[in-house]
Write a structure and sequence with these properties.
With about 240 residues, the chain is of the alpha/beta class. The protein contains 7 helices and 10 strands. The strands form 2 sheets. An 8-stranded mixed sheet has the order 1-9-10-8-5-2-3-4, sandwiched between helices. A two-stranded antiparallel sheet has the order 6-7. β3, α2 and β4 form a beta-alpha-beta unit. It is globular, with a radius of gyration of 17 Å. The protein starts with 9 loop residues before the first strand and ends with a strand. About 45% of the residues are buried. InterPro entries: GlcNAc_PI_deacetylase-related, LmbE-like_dom_sf. One of its GO terms (molecular function) is hydrolase activity, acting on carbon-nitrogen (but not peptide) bonds, in linear amides. This is LmbE family N-acetylglucosaminyl deacetylase.
Length: about 240
């Protein structure tokens, strides 16, 4: 029997930066864990902006896209407000069929240039969430586009038509939901806020029915306590940190 314990997670480096751009595929992507860290950072006075590749219009089985898109945008704006984020942008790539394209990379790179973050947060770009849990294509494609957009944003000869000066200041990319986490953020004081942030996606959660992901309190508290086992017993959210 394998009795080896999982390695401990390092504290997320929180010194030397002031701006975060979080780039994900859909409304609710950040609320499944990362929002607890974001609430902590905005509470520390850091600026955080959200960039969403789609409006999540294809994400509700019981609501047609033309109704679901505006509904999910409204819920995302409220969800962001709860954790102290007021800058939220939607790129309008088509939900469910987001491509890892040059166009997506350009959109993200130009946003990085505009907002000039030192930290970029994104969603899991790996094929799996964990053993037996396959990741969705939109998440993978957006996550991989982010990893390519960071160096593209620094290259003045790429996407020159965007009219924004290059930005070479991204120090870290933090991948939320990665099956290979390296660091964690203590969310002891922001866990309740993160639960409220996910709960703000009320109509979306209703559409999930009895799926485990439809219970914000149970889902997020369980995730934070699971991460705590690798973080000195403190409720936390985990990231795979890539240094740029």
């Amino acid at each position: 029997m394998n009795t080896e314990q999982p390695s401990q997670l390092e504290p997320f480096p929180e010194d030397g930066w002031s701006r975060v751009l979080a780039v994900v595929a859909h409304p609710d992507d950040l609320e499944y864990g990362a929002a607890g860290a974001i609430a902590r950072w905005t509470g520390m006075g850091r600026w955080v902006g959200y960039l969403l590749a789609s409006r999540g219009e294809a994400g509700m089985d019981d609501v047609p896209p033309e109704e679901a898109g505006p509904l999910r945008v409204a819920e995302q704006l409220e969800s962001a407000r709860i954790v102290g984020v007021s800058d939220v942008e939607f790129l309008d790539h088509p939900d469910g069929v987001i491509e890892e394209s040059t166009a997506l990379r350009r959109d993200i790179a130009l946003a990085i240039r505009r907002h000039r973050p030192e930290v970029v947060v994104t969603i899991n770009h790996h094929r799996w969430w964990g053993p037996g849990m396959m990741n969705q294509a939109d998440h993978r494609n957006v996550g991989n586009a982010v990893l390519d957009a960071v160096p593209a944003a620094a290259n003045r000869w790429l996407f020159r038509d965007g009219g924004v000066e290059p930005w070479r200041g991204v120090r870290l990319v933090a991948v939320a939901g990665s099956p290979q986490p390296t660091h964690a953020v203590d969310v002891s004081e922001t866990l309740e806020t993160s639960i409220a942030s996910l709960a703000a996606h009320r109509r979306y959660l209703e559409s999930l029915g009895d799926h485990p992901m439809a219970d914000p309190d149970d889902m997020l508290r369980g995730m934070a306590l699971q991460t705590a086992q690798r973080f000195g017993g403190r409720p936390a959210t985990a990231f795979e940190v890539l240094r740029m």
